[in-house]
Specification:
There is one protein chain. The protein is an alpha+beta fold and 220 residues long. It folds into 3 domains: 54 residues; 44 residues; 108 residues. Helix content is 42%, strand content 16%. The protein contains 6 helices and 7 strands; from the N terminus they run H-H-H-H-H-E-E-E-E-H-E-E-E. The strands form 2 sheets. The protein has a 4-stranded antiparallel β-sheet, with helices on one face. Strands 4-1-7 form a 3-stranded antiparallel β-sheet. A hairpin with a 2-residue loop joins strand 5 and strand 6. The chain is rod-shaped.
């Protein structure tokens, strides 16, 4: 129903109610009572009821001119709102995933393919290491919490005391909650420092992470 149809016009008001009656209307008590109620009963109440019915109808959004910009076919106001929320939630997740991926793989904004970077590292003579860091594997020390790991050599030479490590990286799992937790752990590890020794890397953090994490380092 077009809500414009519920508007009361001047033509409909004319002759309705007590306005325009003679000083002595010549009506009975019952007729006078009806005349006083006429505007409300004849014009207002029917339109009010029609408005309530229209707003409660499944097609209320269409009646109000609200369109579903997401193309989900939503008809009611609530459905349109739900569709908009689902649309924005998905966009936020995608934007967040993109930001997270850049933070993990391209923190300096170089827009370099990580797999191409691996091949380039081999050509440049860099090493690539992988190790699992356990959240409950840290021990309290004089300064922060430390954990020593034995990295797997994926390419290149073994870790020595002279090895210089690039900041650690991780691979996303594809699950939003898991990747967000891993990103927080990675940030805590990056905020600390790493020391190399023959065949090992010792990580020191100021705050204990909440998750285990698999890290990758480039080394020279």
């Amino acid at each position: 129903m077009d809500l414009k149809e519920l508007a009361v016009t001047e033509a409909q008001l004319a002759g309705t109610g007590v306005i325009g009656l003679a000083d002595t209307p010549g009506l009975s008590v019952a007729e006078m009572q009806e005349k006083f109620e006429e505007t409300a009963r004849k014009l207002i109440i029917p339109r009010f009821n029609a408005l309530v019915k229209t707003l409660a109808d499944e097609q209320a959004a269409e009646s109000l001119g609200a369109q579903d910009p997401c193309g989900s076919g939503a008809a009611s106001i609530q459905q349109v709102l739900a569709a908009l929320k689902a649309y924005t939630d998905e966009k936020i997740i995608r934007i967040g995933a993109g930001d997270m991926a850049q933070a993990m793989y391209d923190p300096q904004g170089r827009h370099t393919d990580i797999f191409a970077a691996v091949d380039a590292a081999k050509q440049l003579g860099l090493s690539l290491y992988r190790a699992t860091v356990l959240c409950d594997g840290f021990a309290a020390g004089v300064s922060g919490y430390s954990q020593r790991v034995t990295p797997q050599v994926l390419t290149g030479a073994a870790v020595t005391a002279a090895t210089q490590l690039a900041p650690p990286m991780l691979l996303p799992t594809g699950d939003q909650a898991t990747d967000e937790a891993l990103a927080e752990t990675l940030a805590l590890i990056n905020a600390g420092f790493a020391e190399t020794a023959a065949g090992s890397i010792t990580l020191t953090v100021w705050e204990l992470p909440a998750t285990d994490i698999v890290l990758y380092w480039y080394g020279r």
